[in-house]
Amino acid sequence: MSDALPIEVRPVEARGLVKRYGDIVAVDDVDLTVERGDVFGYLGPNGAGKTTSLRMLLGLIRPTAGRARLFGRDPIVDGARALDGVAGFVEGPRFYPYLSGRRNLRLLADLDGGAPRSRIDEVLDVVELRDRAKDRVGGYSHGMRQRLGIAGALLREPKLLLLDEPATGLDPGGMRDMRELIKRLAADGITILLSSHILAEVEELCNRVAIIRKGRIIYEGRLDELLGSAGGGYVLRATDPERARAVLLAHGIEGVTLLERELRFQADEATVARASIALGQAGIGISALAPRSATLEELFLGMTEEEAA
Amino acid sequence: MILVLKWELLKLLAQKRTYLGLGAAMLVPLIFVLVLIFKAGGPNDIPLGRNIRDTGLATPFVVLFFMSIWAFPLITALVSGDIVAAESNNGTLKTILTRSRNRGEIYAAKVVATLAYTVLAIVAMGVVGVVAASLEWGFNDLTSLSGTTVSAWHGLGLLAASLAIYAWPMAGIAAFGLFLSTVTRNSASAVVGTLMWALLMQLLGVLPGTESIRPYLLGEQFQAWHGFLRTPADWTPVVRALWVCAFYVGIPLAVGYLVFLRRDVAGD
Question: Percent of chain B scored above 70 by pLDDT?
């Protein structure tokens, strides 16, 4: 359905983004498309160009080539107007340390054209910072600043939220709270572009992902399709792994690996079923035989490290 | 624009360096008066110095004479060199540039806030000087450099005019500070660089061989207010300061503006 919409209304539409610093190409011909309602995971190793591309989306840095559009508007051409309905932060939210949390939000609200006090209370409640709002941000913990960053973004009542590693530096409880918050926001209909290192978090939250390596996008698409593409794998635990391997081979199953008494292999379901009968007939006990899908982490590491070696 | 400016001013009011600058501008005339109360003699080799105890009006002129050379350039540099660079260092530049304001508006607010601070520092010195000195020596007639006596209120008008025309080259210093603050992204370099600029402009003016360009150096305009101490007022240096400083204010502000509009906000 989304394909039928004119591209102008897509929350994020970047085409051929390039950012060069002298000889170094930080971002190399990046295309990104985020559809309405997506929770879009933007993944990549450190220094792959994630933050640089997010900065270009927000108009903080000028692309060497290519264009970025948010809801059809280019921040370089349209200035602050291109950020209507867009909020978020790159490389961690930053605030005036000598002002209180509330005054920082007041300032941001005024830069957006003003907001009633009740709205500021409301976003402080969402991130559970209301009782610390009168303290100077200089005394805030890392987690509190991250939450204040979300509060500052929510003030704009965004339709698109760009979050750059929002859970970095948070303790396990803080990370869980951040995940819950993102889920709630997505459920409220906010489109989210989430750059993250925490792959379990991406797996839990995102429906689509892009993976960037050395400035280039190496995968963009649905997360379930990515995980499914590596499907067809099985894991077998048997009483005699060596003989079991021979039986599998006899059924045309090749490339069987043995890892800590577990055999791993690729085969279709029917072949696996036949092989299981043969194993039983050969007197080999099966303690476990299960399909096994690759985790995002395995896929991510496989994709981002393969050519680097 | 008003809201952006309001916050630029509130940010200045929340920072220590603002009070350091304004405090210095007020303390110097106060200390000056206190010393002269307890010590005989005075700054006799300075214009109006001999008349320092005749009227409270002489004090701000004499203090301005001292402070015009490097104290006010330093006070000006303290804030103008910091106002953009500090936001680069704190990373707050990206915070405010991802809201609903264009870069030009933010820059303009910073320019106005810097100029407001600079003018306030100069006015504060004048007010504290007049009030403190008048309490001790009275608000009496003033003897101008030409030897003519002018009424106290006329003298106050001359002081206001002098501070106003002195604020103009200081606006040139502030503009240069803002420019450096935008370009260097480093508060310390911008503050020191601005002070160096002010001193260099004055140094050039005393070197032999610079006579032909001397009237057009920024440092020369620091003394334009002396014109008001003559009767009738000598308008030549005043008028020259008005147009010469326009370049020293306009060029750095324009270049700084273009840099600010186009610069990458990365790592800040």
Answer: 99
E strands in chain A? 12-21, 24-34, 39-43, 65-70, 86-89, 160-164, 191-195, 208-213, 216-222, 233-238, 257-259, 262-266, 286-291
CA–CA distance, B204 with B221 (Å, rounded to integer): 13
Q: Is residue A93 over pLDDT 50?
A: yes
As a residue count, chain A comes to: 309
Q: Cα distance from B262 to chain A (closest Cα, Å)? A: 8
What is the ipTM for the molecules in this complex? 0.88
Interface of A with B in 49-88 (CB under 8 A): 52, 55, 58-62, 79-81, 83-84, 87-88
B-chain CB neighbours of A91 within 8 Å are 91, 94, 267
Q: Which helix (H) or strand (E) holds B195?
A: helix B187-206
Q: Which two tokens stand for residue B40?
A: 């005989």
| Lowest-confidence region among B11-15, B27-31, B45-49, B67-71 | B45-49
Q: How far is B173 from chain A (nearest CA, A)?
A: 26
pLDDT of B268 above 60:
no
Q: Which amino acid is at A52?
A: T
d(CA A214, CA A221): 19
User: Hey, are the CB atoms on A61 and B90 less than 8 Å from each other?
Assistant: no
Whether B83 and chain A come into contact, CB under 8 Å, resolves to: no
Helix (H) or strand (E) holding A185: helix A172-187
The predicted model gives A253-260 an average pLDDT of 83
Q: What is the CA radius of gyration of chain B?
A: 20
> Residue A309: which pLDDT band, with cuts at 50, 70 and 90?
very low
The 3-state DSSP class for residue A109 equals helix
- pLDDT tens for residues B48-91? 888 899 999 999 999 999 999 999 999 999 999 999 999 999 99
Q: Go through B120-155 and write b for each residue having 16 or more CB atoms within 10 A of its CB, e for each that does not.
A: bbbebbbbbbbbbbbeebebbbbbbeeeeebebeeb
**Six-digit token string for A309:** 């070696």
User: Could you tell me the pTM of the whole model?
Assistant: 0.88
SS3 content of chain A, % helix, strand, coil (to 5): 40, 25, 35
Of A60, A81, A84, the CB nearest to B265: A60
